[in-house]
Amino acid sequence: MSSNIEPDAPNFEEFFVLGAKKSTWLPFISTPFPVHFNLSSPVSQRRNNLYSECDEYRVRTGNQTLYLHERFVALCQKVIELCPEASEIKACRKIEGGFNRVFIFTLDNEKNIVARLPFRLAGPAKLTTISEVATIRYLQTKTNIPVPRILDYNCDASDETNIIGSEYIIMEHARGVPLHEKWHKMAGDQQVRCIDAIYRTLKDIAELEFPAFGSIYFDDSLESVSKQPLGDGFCVGPHCGTRYWGTNVGERRYYHDANRNIGPWLTIGDYCDGLVDAGMSQVPPVDTKPERPIYHGSPETQ
User: Fold this and answer.
1) Exposed, middle or buried, 85 (CB in 10 Å: 0-12/13-18/19+)?
2) Which family does it belong to (predicted)?
3) 247 within a domain of the structure (yes/no)
């Protein structure tokens, strides 16, 4: 069964330090446009006036300019509120993966906090975020896999109480070095031991059993008609994979021959039917004769 938690981009981003006394253009490797961050206050700002002098923070991605201004300030404040042992943010890194915009905040207690804001093409609104949170909580409940702890989340961008104005997940940062940076330097026996260690760490997942094919949710987050109970407050519900929802840019879906088939599916046959239906939904309706233009008039008038 798929958890639909997509990995983010490799760590090839650059640092930028908050609190510059003058305006500075700070480019990110992961985007073709520079990012402008202007703060007139010093770096050592306390919690109660954090980023109050922020002029503008802009992220330009593709053909669209996304203004984060107050929302980014709110995100910074939220991170500080979730970490009572810290009083300020020392630095921040920005990564853009395939499905999330990620900010990695370094606090003055030397801890890192990750904030993930999904793009529209990440999957269905609300469902994708709540499923990712539920999947992580489920793994923490059922396995001993060291999954970073989620500190806060919001799956409703339109919620008036959501001052960040976007769906988000704020969680602890997993320390370590990406394996792809070390793999080519490792000897053959080291690689074998590494693979064995990964297997021993993740083997608990292979022992989990599920009543259906789909995505994991909290039991109280879905209606009963679209879920299968999983126990301990969890359930299996509709699959969040983008292939079932048509969230990719310019990808239209057509349901003239069948209804949307998003699960959950009780059998492997039903799951395969869902894959077929997802593919069929990308095929536009056949141009029928009555819809074709009659250039020479109808048979009766000829």
Assistant:
1) exposed
2) Belongs to the AIM9 family.
3) yes
74 in a structural domain: yes
What lies within 8 Å, CB to CB, of 124 at 6+ separation is 238, 240, 245, 247
Q: Say if residue 233 is in the same domain as residue 155.
A: no
263 domain residue, yes or no: yes
- Residue ending a domain, choose from 176, 191, 206: 176
Amino acid, single-letter form, for residue 149: R
Helices (H) and strands (E) in the chain, counts: 5, 13
pLDDT of 12 reads 28
- What pLDDT shows up at residue 148? 93
The C-alpha angle 36, 96, 100, rounded to 5 degrees, equals 120
199 lies in some domain = no
Q: Indicate the residue type of 170.
A: I
Reported as type and span, the H/E element at residue 138 is helix 127-142
| Sheet of strand 24-27: strand arrangement | 24-27, 34-39, 54-61, 64-67
| Residue with the two structure tokens 């499923």 | 131
pTM for this prediction: 0.71
State how many domains the chain has: 2
Q: Is the dihedral of CA 271, 272, 278, 281 positive or negative?
A: negative
Flag residues of the chain having pLDDT under 70. 1-69, 249-250, 257, 287-302
Position 46 scores a pLDDT of 39
Looking at the structure, do residues 170 and 232 belong to the same domain, yes or no? no
The whole domain housing 70 covers: 46-176
Q: pLDDT tens for residues 119-172?
A: 888 888 899 999 999 999 999 999 999 899 999 999 998 888 898 888 999 999
